[in-house]
Automatic annotation (TrEMBL):
It comes from the Bacteria. Keywords: Lyase, Metal-binding. It holds the Pfam family CbiX. It comes from Streptomyces parvulus. InterPro entries: CbiX-like, Sirohydro_Cobaltochel/CbiX. This is Sirohydrochlorin chelatase. Coiled coil: none annotated. Signal peptide: none annotated.
Length: 260
């Protein structure tokens, strides 16, 4: 786990409440992306009443992260990336934006790898038609956005391994951009190895171009983006909790309710 401290202000003012959770989405021209992320954050608020939860985008959608942080002033905040692995956005874009803001911010770890992420991936595959008893000739392509950063590839490979252990079949990571193999290439590789049923698991937070593009390459079933699955809301809070302790000096901010 990597948690990054970024101080954009010398102020020591405190707000008297828990640090704000700022979920950071990439942004998309697909209108379903914003509505999906908004609904996911509603789930987070339901799980943790009283926690300030905000949204900021890296690009393409409002509010932009810089605007969200500016509105928070010099209070403490934890930036939780709605991204799957450690890539350029997590390592450079988010810390840079935080440093240029007045907020006292920490950047939490990305969503993956983590068992809760695998819970959501597994559930979406079941919804798409993955049989309760796994066929011997089945395999899965784990479709991710892609990054040139080797740490991002390591995180994706680890997530694929966790999903393979859950399903009991091979899971091959593949990418929509910036890295190889592509999803069609991964499908061909698994087919050549004798896997007649190859599913595509969408490792995307929300609908968008990459999710649509990779689903179209599925020769069998393709799962929906992770979206508002309950495990995703719990995972956001888990990443927040990991990062918030240095800000609060170890004081707990957890007062969760149970939701279905």
């Amino acid at each position: 786990m990597t948690v990054m401290t970024v101080t954009g202000s010398t102020s020591t003012r405190t707000t008297g409440g828990p640090p704000a959770l700022v979920a950071v989405a990439h942004g998309s021209r697909d209108p379903r992306a914003l509505s999906t992320v908004t609904a996911l954050l509603d789930r987070v608020r339901a799980l943790r009443p009283g926690l300030p939860v905000h949204l900021g985008h890296i690009e393409l959608n409002a509010p932009l992260l810089s605007d969200t942080l500016a509105a928070l002033g010099d209070g403490p905040a934890v930036l939780v990336p709605l991204l799957i692995g450690n890539g350029h956005h997590v390592k450079h874009d988010l810390p840079g934006t935080a440093a240029a803001s007045p907020a006292r911010a920490r950047v939490a770890a990305p969503l993956g790898p983590h068992p809760l992420l695998v819970d959501a991936l597994h559930a979406r595959l079941l919804e798409a038609g993955w049989p309760p008893r796994t066929p011997r000739n089945a395999a899965v392509v784990l479709a991710c956005a892609g990054s040139r950063d080797p740490d991002s590839r390591t995180d994706t490979t680890r997530t694929a391994s966790l999903l393979a252990a859950r399903l009991g079949v091979p899971v091959l990571p593949a990418y929509a951009s910036a890295a190889s193999p592509t999803v069609p290439e991964a499908v061909r590789t698994l087919t050549a190895r004798g896997h007649r049923r190859v599913a595509v698991a969408a490792c995307f937070t929300a609908p968008g171009r990459f999710a649509t593009q990779t689903a179209a390459a599925a020769p069998w079933i393709a799962s929906a983006p992770l979206g508002t699955h309950p495990a995703m809301a719990r995972l956001l809070l888990h990443r927040y909790d990991e990062a918030v302790i240095p800000i609060t000096g170890g004081a707990s901010t957890r007062r969760e309710t149970t939701t279905p």
